[in-house]
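If your schedule permits, I should be very grateful for your opinion on a structural question. Thank you for your consideration; the sequence and its tokens are set out here:

===
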Amino acid sequence: MQRGTRSAVIGGLIAVVVGGVAYGGYDLYHGGLTGHDGSDNKVATGPLSATEVGSAANGFLTAWAAGDTAKAAALTDNPSQASAALSSFRTNLHATALTLTPKQAQGGSTAPQSGAGTGASTGTGTGAVSDSVPFSAKATFAYAGQQSSWAYDSALTVVRDTTTGKPVVKWAPSVVNPRLAAGQSLEAAPTGAAPMTAVDRTGKPLSATAFPSLSGILQQLAARYGTKVHGTPGMAVRVREANGTAGPVLHTLSQGKAGSPLPTTIDSRLQAEAEKAIKTEGPDASFVAVQPSTGDILAVADNPAYGYDKAMLGQYASGSTFKVITASTLLSTGKYTPTSKLACPKTITYGGRSFHNVEGENFANATTVATDFAASCNTAFISTANVLPDGAVESEAKDVFGLGLTWNTGVSSWDGKVPAGSGSLKASTYIGQGEVQVNPLNMASVAATAKSGVFRQPVIVPDSIDHRQLAQAPRQLGSTVSAEIRSMMVLTAREGTAEPTIGSLSGDVGAKTGTAEVDGQTKPNSWFVAYRGDVAAAAVVPNTGEGYKYAGKIVTAVLSVG
């Protein structure tokens, strides 16, 4: 074998292998193991010589660089583990070439770091001595049409095998790369989602800079849809921990490439207004707008903009905005119409619990279903628990308004919860308290269903992109009931509790306020749902006050744009 460097093609791997290098004046391609008396039938013991260290190190590095991982592994004290790690480096990391060069010691000669031939050693057991050989590694990779190179320094340790006496490389993951500890390995893994540009319903790009409230949603969209629009995630070499979790990234194999723009249902005009309006009322406000005719999510906004998406994932008692569903249930029986008399006493007891109106209203027998709705009378609607069977309102919430079904919006969402109950829990549900749990997404959908008469599951990405299954409500609002609900919401917007905020807006406007009392809070949660034309919206501002005073201002500001 000639001194110098040579090239070889092994299994498709173009490798630059280590040439002959002298350690302490010895040619590493010559020399071997002998017994104490110079014969070949005795097990060598004692310190390793420079020849033995250099021969073992050079043989291992040469075989590894040439792509002969089986040979390289056989020159270690753990061929099984070494073979897996060395093979993985070449194949799983997409390496195309590898150069391994022993480093120069002081004085210009290439030598082991720890006193080979001088008796210096680091023992690994009785009769086992070791010497460390530093080397530099330079690997080149090809992934997704992109080339990269990675250079680093490492080291190996040569020990005398206690059984055969032969010098072998003591296997450790750090031989492959010094950043690896026991149990760790290298793996090629995506650096994240494929780069992607999401666009609004008109094709305008959406960004977290322009629309901070969409930051988390845009990240989810990239993760879910980046590859579906033919994007390619970046790839990197990273540490794989002993327990299988991802460790630090050590080298970038390729940069991600964006595919086609992802269409969304967001309306940039409404989103911009929502981003602005959400900052005006309370530090925890959230808002969603939905298109009744399609179910398209038009805007999502949270304050603060970054972090937990309360608008889509929050779980709150809905307060009196839930009376849209309670009224729908009542009207659907055919026993009541909006003009039916329905008393609004100051208090009422049901299931052993006393309930009151938010401002202590007491309209005796002078009220109707419609005026009770517009005035948001708790006691009037709780009194209908004597008429409606257990579970009726809960069924209406799910089977007509879609709450509690499995929604596939395109991002993570909480789809509402209205558990069935009896006694005082049943009464609490009628006014959106108790165990009712919803968020602005859910209640914007309720307002949209009330406007159109049909539940259309909200989406932020058209289902044509991935053909996912959308939730379907088993029943629709009857045409008569649908018209009656809208008329009551219009009355609320023009003459009822919502009028101080939204009453000045022109056009087809309906609304419902909500003031949800929450244990442990000094003030109730402010709720407001409304529609104007083909835009329905909902907002909640926790721990503030009455619905129209806080949430109502947010909804009104956005609907004024629509």
User: Anything to note?
Assistant: The longest strand covers residues 146-160. Residues 1-39, 105-129 have pLDDT under 50 and may be disordered. The chain has 15 helices and 20 strands. The first helix runs from residue 50 to 66.
